[in-house]
Design a protein that fits this description.
single chain; about 750 residues; Serine Threonine Protein Phosphatase 5, Tetratricopeptide repeat; 44 helices
Amino acid sequence: MKILWRLAFPVALAFALLVIAACSRDPNVVKQKYFASGTAYFQKQRYREAAIQFANAAKVDPKFAEAHYQLAQCYLKLAIWNGAYQELSRTVELQPDNLKAQFELGDLLFRGSQFELAASSAQTILQKDPSSADGHLLAANAAAGLKDMPAALKEMQKAIQFAPDRSDLHVNMAFLQMKANDNASAEESFKKAISADPKSVTPVLALADFYRSQRRWPQAEQQFHQVVELEPKNLGARGALARVYIAEGRKPEAEQLMVETKKLLSGDPEGYRSLGDFYFNTGDQDKALAEYESLYREHPKDLQVKKNYVQLLILQNRLDDAAKLNNEILKRDANDADALLYEAQMLGRQGHTNDAVPLLQKIIKNAPENATAHYYLGVAYDQLGNSGQAESEWHNAVRLNPNFTSAQQALATSALRKGDFAQLAASAEQLITNQPSGAPGYILRAGARIGQKDQAGAEADLRKAMELAPQDPTAFSRLAGLRSMQGRYPDAEKLFERALAINPHYQEALQGLIGLYLREKQPAKALARVDEQIAKDPQNSSYYLLRGLLLLNAKNMAQAQEALEKSVALDQNNQNALLVLGQTLVARGHTDQAIAKYEKAIQQNSGDVRSYVLLAIIEDAQGNWQKAEELYQKALQVQPEFPMAANNLAYLMLEHGGNKDVALSLAQKARQKMGDSPDAADTVAWAYYQEGSYGLAIGLLQEALKQVPNNASFHYHLGLAYEKTDDRVHAKEHLERVLQIDPKFPHADDVRQALSSVSAP
């Protein structure tokens, strides 16, 4: 028997192994194994791993409805909406009676603005179960999307009738009532939602947000406090409570709350970053930078901390420090989109906008849906003078992210610059729709209404902005500007002062106030007010620039130079101060110093065409026309559409034997941009003269002289043009006028020779 047993054991073992192998190849066993593994991952919130296993199960058995459904749940958790839609569609195809899947499919359609399809899903549910609260809920939301509010409210009432204890239904009813402008009923519905589930923070948060939207700050504060009591570590509620404090003008309490939040949530990355984010969002960049500097030392491996720190360093113009950290990120991942964006921003700030453009294009090529990259590419194009492409990129940004405030504001600013008040109004309306409780949309719409001569509407919008953001000086300053337009100077002065009291750094308000004093012929008062503000904000480079401009206006050149040098010392990137300083030095006879300043300006910001143009003007005045021509060409490389550079380059080419066709093309393009500029008309006329089109030249020169009757150069060109048409009388008249205006005219000998020719019998 022992021998038989010994022989039988290997046979039994082999048989068992065969059975196991057969089981491992059984599709039902395999798919259940994958499904069980996916379920385990899902319970641990490891949704990506779970999705892989559920997908494997569905691959083994394509008709395994539960696997498709659970895969859809993973995709919903991971916000992979297309995948969720496909898997839910497959689920209801395999299980038509799975009403939960049908509801989730309809909800996805609703969130994707496919309202008619969502309504169809609701009807499918209600045909199978007329008492389905979810079915009526979906029908209500679909009707609201189709703007049928009576039907939406009716369906919502049915949903609550079938499930009166469901808190979420009361919350949904409240939102629909708000949409129907029935805020009183909405408030009651929120309270019913809280009564239905007193331990849930969701309805309490919803009521708190409702009060916040109504600017009922005490009630909002009470509800947010209740959420924090229910969930002390609820970061969202704590942040919202801090925003309520800010709205009430209680910033110290808001700051203290976020200090406590950071301590309480020190083990949570979002928690320990919350204080730095608070400082950033409230505009306190210095504190935000100090906080993130500390966080980076404490959490050097937190990539988001490093990225936020880099962004703050860029905003503070500490570009060397920012580049060092950013290079570490790029070394880790050369295609990190955020780091590439930071690099592009730094290139732009360094004046290397031409280098930033291909970098931003690379980001967009890798991720066409990156709205931020489109926005910054638009900024780069705008800096290069290509406003058309800039607007196109900003439109791409808002298409990808309609809530992208910076892109919407860029479009609005572009519209304002063009005087396109209809487009400005449209952009402002979109901002208001996106952020009805935010001030920027109302401020921009006020600008559109001022342009459309609707001062009453503009004032209403500005007062709304002041109500929404009492700690933002912008609306106060803009209303001051409106008062100034209306000639109500005392009111304007008070509003400008109010803006400066809110924010002593707010340059627009001080500039407006100084403009007001100058309009009232009070330059001494203007200078005294600037000095007063400098005492409050002594590190403000722009205020010293303003002081320098006032001193220049008073012909006090020495003190103006001193103020401008102080402005540049405080901020070497203040191109306006650097350029005005150069002009001041030229006026004082310090041409070499001016040249050095402009060369420094080009070195610091090679993307600012003004430095090239002003340096070219000096070089040309000194007789270095070849150097001037080279500088104008460089300016046009940086900004191909910059009209002054094109106009001046064209004139130099015409004066010194350059290509006449190229010169005419440049001059015509410049004139299109410069509008009624007499200088542009003269340049085009001079090009026509040299090409033999004397009649065209005469017409343009007559137009230029209507604007500047005593311009010797215009008379000279017109006299020569008349000479070529044998109109000796007019030729003599204008040539004689040249010497009357400027006896030392550079081409005086040529004028006398021409006069001799037209005066000969």
